[in-house]
Structure formats: structure tokens, C-alpha cells
Design a protein that fits this description.
The chain is α+β, with helices and mostly antiparallel strands. It has helices spanning 33-40, 44-53, 71-79, 109-120, 126-133, 135-140, and strands at residues 17-19, 31-32, 64-66, 157-160, 181-186, 189-193, 196-197. It has two domains: 14-66, no CATH class; 71-197, no CATH class. It has a four-stranded antiparallel β-sheet with strand order 4-5-6-7, with no helix packed on it. The chain has a three-stranded antiparallel β-sheet with strand order 2-1-3. A hairpin with a 2-residue loop joins strand 5 and strand 6 (189-193). The termini are far apart. 15% of the residues are buried.
């Protein structure tokens, strides 16, 4: 495992690998692996293995965040005309059965992309940023009735304040709603009005046609 080149070891800087909040080793939470190994006097891999071993069969429970992309890399990648923005973040909700679930980026990736690429760097226009987040993914996935406003398409509409739309979530407080979103219509049903959830649910699962 020590010789395997992975995204974890490939950063070549254990200061950029940070252990998140966890129940078994709270004394190491929010600290870099480099900081942890200095205290423990261990190799970084051995320290990581000890933390994993401390969880027994619940080895997937301890999580880290890796600060592997610089702002320069983000500008270059997201600014490329062929780049389609996306995230592996699980869709979550502040209420219901998923309210207690944490996944970094779930509440922030799209709003961060818009804020960073439009307002902070000016690399993309508001219209192009929206296209990268909606129409381009829909076209790439072959969803002809989504991602664009036109007659016959699904009535999914998001209305936001382009001067305010952005993330409020942080590394250690990730479950924070973005700000600046005004109204959301899903399949013709208003689910967010004036920034407040209406309680209506109209989303459906997208299934692959056979």
C-alpha cells in the first residue's frame, strides 16, 4: 500500500491532507496528516493505517479532505472551453432522512463554481457559467428535454441573484446552504420561493432508457 501511487500519496505533501471530524480520534480532527505524524513520531502511512485500524470493520468512516488543486490549476481547467463542471458530491437536503448526512461539496460545488469563475476571476460570463452547469451536462448525457429553457422541455427553472449567488459552506461546516438562490421550479412545481422551501416535492428519478 505504501508503494501504490494514489491521489492520497500523489500530492507529495501531507500538510495538504486533513483529517475531518471523527468520533474515534477527535484529538486529530481538523489537523493535517503531517501535523499528526509529527506528534506521533511515525511515518505518514503508518499513522494513517493506525487510524483506519482503530475503526475496525468501519474502515470507510474516517474521512480526509485533500487540498490538491491550486487556484491556478482551477482557473486553467474550468476556463478551458471543453471543460464541463461537475462533482462527485452526493445530493443532500437540510431536512428529511438525509439531514444528518455530511458530504463535502453537496451544498457548495455549483455555487462555488459560479462565484469563482464569474465574480471572482471573470473568466466566464454568467450565461456561460450557467450553460456549463446545465445545458452542457444535459447534452453530454443525452437528455434532450433538460438543461435548456424551451417549449416541451422539463419545467425545471432556477432563479438566482448573480451578484450574490455563492457558497456559505466551509471545509469543516460543509452542510450550509448557498446564498443568492431566489426561486426554484421543479417539473413545474415551485419548491423554493423567495429563498424558502415550500415543502413541495416534484423531482423524479432519471432512468436510462433500454
Amino acid at each position: 500500500m505504501k508503494t501504490f501511487r494514489s491521489i492520497l500519496s500523489g500530492v507529495d505533501d501531507w500538510e495538504r491532507v486533513v483529517l475531518l471530524d471523527n468520533a474515534r480520534f477527535p484529538q486529530y480532527a481538523r489537523r493535517s496528516l503531517a501535523d499528526i505524524v509529527r506528534e506521533r513520531g511515525q511515518d505518514a502511512f503508518d499513522a494513517a493505517f493506525d487510524i483506519l485500524q482503530g475503526y475496525g470493520e468501519r474502515v470507510r468512516e474516517p474521512m480526509v479532505i485533500i487540498h490538491c488543486y491550486s487556484e491556478a490549476l482551477q482557473r486553467a481547467a474550468f476556463g478551458n472551453a471543453l471543460c464541463m463542471a461537475g462533482s462527485d458530491a452526493t445530493t443532500l437536503a437540510p431536512d428529511g432522512p438525509l439531514a444528518g448526512t455530511v458530504f463535502h461539496g453537496a451544498y457548495s460545488w455549483a455555487s462555488w463554481f459560479f462565484r469563482f469563475m464569474v465574480r471572482e476571476t471573470g473568466i466566464l460570463s454568467p450565461a456561460e457559467a450557467v450553460r456549463r452547469l446545465t445545458g452542457l451536462p444535459a447534452r453530454t448525457l443525452g437528455l434532450a428535454d433538460r438543461g435548456i429553457l424551451k417549449a416541451g422541455a422539463r419545467a425545471d427553472v432556477a432563479v438566482f441573484d448573480a451578484t450574490r449567488f455563492g457558497e456559505t459552506a466551509t471545509t469543516f461546516e460543509p452542510n450550509q446552504l448557498a446564498e443568492g438562490m431566489r426561486h426554484v421550479v421543479v417539473n413545474g412545481v415551485v419548491t423554493l420561493a423567495d429563498g424558502h422551501l415550500t415543502g413541495e416535492r416534484a423531482g423524479t428519478v432519471i432512468r436510462r432508457a433500454h
